[in-house]
């Protein structure tokens, strides 16, 4: 589904979402979904992320683009909750992506310790 021309798409939305999720840490779980997830611990957060990832894959395989967009947003949100829980920042992930830019995916994977090449 194309993005309407009157909508500005800005990747910094992920940074803003990270800030919102971070601000919910330790707040009342009854009024914030992020706070509820964070209060349930890493295992539950990881489980929820996995469920959303599977739903995303199902929509991709089914060719349902509109649903894939929604599920992708859910995956990104739950990934950010996982980052907040683990103490990982978007800047760390962006730096890793920058480091990998211009490197073949095959070469990058082969360079990892313990890679089976």
TrEMBL record:
It catalyses: 1-(5-phospho-beta-D-ribosyl)-ATP + H2O = 1-(5-phospho-beta-D-ribosyl)-5'-AMP + diphosphate + H(+). It is found in: Cytoplasm. Its EC number is 3.6.1.31. It is an enzyme of class 3 (hydrolase). Keywords: Amino-acid biosynthesis, ATP-binding, Cytoplasm, Histidine biosynthesis, Hydrolase, Nucleotide-binding. InterPro entries: HisE, PRib-ATP_PPHydrolase-like. GO terms for molecular function: phosphoribosyl-ATP diphosphatase activity. Belongs to the PRA-PH family. This is Phosphoribosyl-ATP pyrophosphatase. It comes from Acetobacter fallax.
